[in-house]
Amino acid sequence: MSGIIIDHEKCILCRKCLRACPVSALEMANGRICVKDLCNLCTMCVDACPKGAISLAAAEAAYDDRSSGIWLYAQVSESGLCKVSCELVSKAAELAAEAKARSGELCEVTALLPSGDAEMASELISCGADSVLYCDHAYLRTGDPDAAAAWIVSLVQERHPGILLFPATVSGREIAPACAAMLGTGLTADCTSLQVDRESGLLHQTRPAFGGNLMATIVCPGSRPQMATVREGVFPVRRREDPAGSATIEEAPFPGNFLPRRSIRAVLQEAADSYDVTKAEKLVVVGRGIGSKKNLPLMREFADRIGAGLGCSRPLVEAGWCEYSHQVGQTGHSVAPKLLISIGVSGAIQHLAGIAGAEKIIAINTDAKAPIFGAADYGIVGDCISVVKDFLTK
Ligand SMILES: Cc1cc2nc3c(=O)[nH]c(=O)nc-3n(C[C@H](O)[C@H](O)[C@H](O)COP(=O)(O)OP(=O)(O)OC[C@H]3O[C@@H](n4cnc5c(N)ncnc54)[C@H](O)[C@@H]3O)c2cc1C
Fold this sequence. Notes:
The chain folds into three domains: 5-60, Alpha-Beta Plaits (2-Layer Sandwich), CATH 3.30.70.20; 70-251, HUPs (Rossmann fold, 3-Layer(aba) Sandwich), CATH 3.40.50; 277-393, TPP-binding domain (Rossmann fold). The chain is built from 13 helices and 21 strands. The chain is α/β, with parallel strands linked by helices. The strands form six sheets. A seven-stranded parallel sheet has the order 11-15-10-5-8-9-16, with helices on both faces. The protein has a five-stranded parallel sheet with strand order 18-17-19-20-21. The chain is globular and about 80 Å long. The longest helix has 21 residues, at 83-103. The relative contact order is 0.10. It binds flavin-adenine dinucleotide (FAD). The site of flavin-adenine dinucleotide has 30 residues, from helix 10, helix 11, strand 20 and helix 13.
């Protein structure tokens, strides 16, 4: 459904809107300008119309204005509640506080927990959920993304959340677009920052764009819920400070009209490199500034000495010095350690996108103007090999 409205009384059929539309979503039919379904609401036609006959005004009111509250999909794996679910609920609680500070109205955080248990629900509450909706149904237990989407959509249509967040995991990336399509709303994938705008109250969804060369902030003014997926490790897990006494856990029924399109017989785990750079609480991240592969053992020794894991920038993976499982950044892994020591890394935007969740960053670089120092809490300008050797000999 398009939100573009054409006032045919004012329209003089000059066709300037047809020429302005970048996706050919306008056409002449029966002597009138009509809007096709492929309209993406870019509003180029609104600007092009010399008579002010085209507007987006009705689109802004197209959603159900009872929409309120922030929902998130809490992913569960064979080993329990995924850490990213706690990251998402912590962020949702922060956004709810921002929304409340803006409007003065309570904004509730609801976690959707498919096939979980009471312990997982309590964990979500301890990270900031005001309520948990769960469902223990055979279709959800098989991990069928269609089933998860059907359950979520039925709840959204009944209760109208304002914001709906998903983890940008393999299954989150499958379920979220299915929900967005069924709900007729937008979806911003792989966000690295989320904020409630003080003026409009809209969710500002920021993600890398154009190959990571700039950060784009996207809003969804014309439909609800405002939907985003969020990468793992971007937001820290926080525990709620207020008492969670009034938090509720409610069973939400699975839709009776769901017809499965597939039958899942088994879920096979792909054998993978066992190293998980996202789990380290302390992390040493090395870049091209370490000079050569032969300096890697020195960096490993340093990391071991301080009890840290080892991560790297992308060029080290491309050069075959390190495995991909160690890569940090936009096309690698997002990490959120308590302490990150960045060694010989310039701090390109694609690298910084992966370390935004780190609590404290110490950077070592010979170039005092390297962008990494803009992200660091402490910096050492100097040769990293000497700095690390000095440390190890003390
Ligand atoms: C679409 C896209 C996705 C990308 N994804 C990622 C990603 O996920 N992760 C990632 O890391 N990159 C990614 N990149 C690449 C990114 O743009 C940078 O090229 C990369 O991060 C640079 O790595 P680096 O800092 O190790 O190397 P360089 O940019 O070469 O920087 C080396 C740094 O070391 C310093 N240095 C040199 N000698 C010393 C010394 N002796 N002691 C101390 N410091 C020294 C230099 O001053 C310099 O700042 C991506 C790029 C694109 C286009």
